[in-house]
User: Fold Mitochondrial adapter protein MCP1 transmembrane domain-containing protein from Schizophyllum commune.
Amino acid sequence: MDADNGTPGASPSSKPSTSIKYLTRVIHVTSPFIATFLLVHLAAPISANFGGSSTASNVMLLGREYYQTAMGEKLLVLGPLAAHGLSAIGKRVLSSADRPPRPATSALTLSGIAAAAFLTIHYRTHRVLPTIEAPPILEVGPAELDYEFVKTGLARWPVLNSVLYAGLTAAVAMHIVDGVGILYNVYVKGGRWRAWWPARRTRQIVAGVGVILPVLTGLIALAREPIMTFPSMVARYEAAFRQLALYRVL
Assistant:
């Protein structure tokens, strides 16, 4: 496999164009920012295993200090995510016949597409729609948008939200597993690191046991808790969810 383009069978004599090199570098540079944000963000549902929604909300508030500031969200989250996704699309469009893009059916590509779809839904439901000022939502503020919002969604739409949370977590984790392997092959491979670097299957198991499973069990812990907020707030939460068509038809 070509370490730069990640494509089996690429011609060894061919060289990637300047634009492909640039887009590849953008993808690689933005990856650590995205991974850091995801680890900080997922720490909240994982912490629910140990202290329920109260602990999860507190951890989430701490995480917001990192990424949800006036400029921080744009520079540390939205910017890297947009640059990463658009660069990946650009590479696919601009790749030449002698250096074709990674197959659309590859694990990295499929997990990336799935992650983008799930993340778009997640961002709209948890970040954009609750800020609508019109009634009945009345702009749910940051202090009000805690894990009671998540619990309300799980109580009202248990199957849909379980699928969305599980799908997002699994897609992101598997994308990172393969992405880390590519970064290792390009920048680190060889030398003293070679002996301890885990195989892809091992990395998948670690991601499953260390990230996906704790997030899912944390969500189960949250779903088992009673909703501990005012009925009027629950109505505002539900109204925010219903702004997305999925929640009106399922």
